[in-house]
Every structure is written in structure tokens, then in C-alpha cells.
Design a protein that fits this description.
With 254 residues, the chain is an alpha/beta fold. It contains 8 helices and 13 strands. The protein has a single domain, classed as Alpha-Beta Complex (Spore Coat Polysaccharide Biosynthesis Protein SpsA, Chain A), CATH 3.90.550.
Length: 254
């Protein structure tokens, strides 16, 4: 029933998406020395497969997965899926988040697209999170729409937060030496136009986000479900335990 409900509204979502799966996963070492972080498993399913299934359930028709670190493992995994909606963008050198998107932009096309970190693990609230993002997206006002988590709702998160947000959803960076109330969850909708003129080679998406902040076109949406910040082996264990004990609702498992 849940999948049918998503497909009934698929026309409201972007038709393309990218999953960032090329990083070294330094904080996940030593696990990520031999396994790409997106191929780590929670409750019998890889992080990559969780993201793919959610995107497909929401009606996305083309998904690009980038690969660099242990790229052959990502390629082998995607090949075994035998799904012609999923493509791999190989990076001969690590291109970081921004460079990775630029490298894949021909596959993504000219329309807005979902961008998901390969280690994002979330539980929907009252509605499908991907559909909520699509409903909130406004190309006239936004270059990027980032999904945010309220820090007290993030198990095991120890950071200072990333953004402050005003009543209209406009984002600004956390002031130096202060705590911000919201952390970026690694899910977003981005305008392909934001990458026009972007450099080839390695660079962080933060460079483009900073430009969008200056132009008042970086917006946020607050998540109404749960998010597991899977950055370290300890974070991974927390998420595995939550799913194993049923503290993560079944809708997150597909």
C-alpha cells in the first residue's frame, strides 16, 4: 500500500537523482578500508540499496551513483541489481561532492534532481520525506532545498550543527563558536542550473551553497521523522541496534 501511494503521486517528484558513494569514509575506518561505506549493512540491507529503493518507490526514473574509493565494489553491486534505471559515474580521482556532481551532470540532465549522501539513513515521519521535499521545492525561489534534522532528535550526534533557518526557510551558516539548531541530513533537491560555470575537478558543494546563501536561494526543510547519523563504526552500531530492536518504524525498512 505504501509503495502504491508513492507511485500515485510520482509526477510531483524529480525524475532524476544522484547518490554520493565515492568518498573514502575516513571516520568509518577500519570498516571502510575494505568496504565502501554505502555498502555497509543495516538490518540485512546495504545503505545504498535503502536509498535506491526509496528513490524508485517515489517515482525517480534515473539514478546516478558515483564511485571512486573501491569503485569496483560499487560497480559490481550495481551491476548485480540488473536495473536499467541505475547508472554508475566513475571518478578516476576523488572529486569531492561538488566535483562529483559536475562529473555526472550529463547523466543528470537539466531539471532539478535529488541528491542523497550514500550513508543517509532516515525514517519517514507522517509522509514520505522525498515527496515532502518535492512539494516544498520552488524553482523560482530556490537553488537548493536541504533536508535538516533538529539536533535533539539525532541519536548519537555530537556536532555543533550546520545551519540556522528563518521563518521563510532561508538558511545561513552556523555562526562561529556557536551551536546551530539544525544539521544537514544529506538529502536535498538541487537545481541543475546551480552547476552552470562550476569548475571541473575536486571541489565541495559548500562552495555553491555559500553562493546560494548570498543570493538568498538556499532553503531548508525540517525533517519530521528520524535520522541516523552514520559516520563512525559506533554510529553504525547505534543504527543497527535501533533497527534490530524495532525502535525504527518498519516503514524505514521497505
Amino acid at each position: 500500500m505504501y509503495l502504491a501511494r508513492l507511485h500515485s503521486r510520482a509526477t510531483r517528484v524529480p525524475k532524476t537523482a544522484m547518490i554520493l558513494a565515492a568518498g573514502l569514509g575516513k571516520r568509518m575506518m577500519p570498516l571502510s578500508d575494505r568496504i565502501p561505506k554505502p555498502l555497509l549493512v543495516i538490518a540485512g540491507k546495504t545503505l545504498l540499496d535503502r536509498a535506491l529503493e526509496r528513490l524508485i518507490a517515489a517515482g525517480v526514473e534515473r539514478i546516478v551513483v558515483n564511485a571512486s574509493h573501491l569503485a569496483d565494489r560499487i560497480v559490481d553491486h550495481v551491476t548485480k541489481l540488473e536495473d536499467n534505471r541505475v547508472f554508475v559515474s566513475i571518478e578516476d580521482e576523488p572529486l569531492e561532492t561538488g566535483g562529483g556532481v559536475v562529473n555526472a551532470i550529463d547523466l543528470l540532465g537539466q531539471d532539478p534532481f535529488y541528491l542523497i549522501n550514500g550513508d543517509s539513513v532516515w525514517v519517514d515521519g507522517m509522509k514520505c520525506t522525498l515527496l515532502r521535499l518535492a512539494e516544498t521545492w520552488d524553482a523560482d525561489r530556490m537553488d537548493a532545498l536541504l533536508l535538516l534534522a533538529s539536533l535533539p532528535r539525532v541519536p548519537g550526534f555530537s556536532g555543533l550543527g550546520d545551519f540556522v533557518m528563518d521563518q521563510d526557510g532561508l538558511l545561513d551558516r552556523r555562526p562561529e563558536a556557536m551551536v546551530a539548531p539544525y544539521a544537514y541530513m544529506g538529502l536535498s533537491i538541487l537545481s541543475a542550473a546551480m552547476f552552470e560555470g562550476a569548475p571541473n575537478g575536486p571541489f565541495s558543494l559548500n562552495k555553491l551553497y555559500n553562493g546560494a546563501i548570498e543570493a538568498r536561494r538556499l532553503h531548508g526543510m525540517l525533517h519530521d521523522g528520524l535520522w541516523y547519523h552514520v559516520s563512525t563504526p559506533e554510529d553504525l552500531e547505534i543504527a543497527r541496534n535501533r533497527f534490530a530492536t524495532g525502535h525504527a518504524p518498519a516503514v524505514a525498512l521497505f
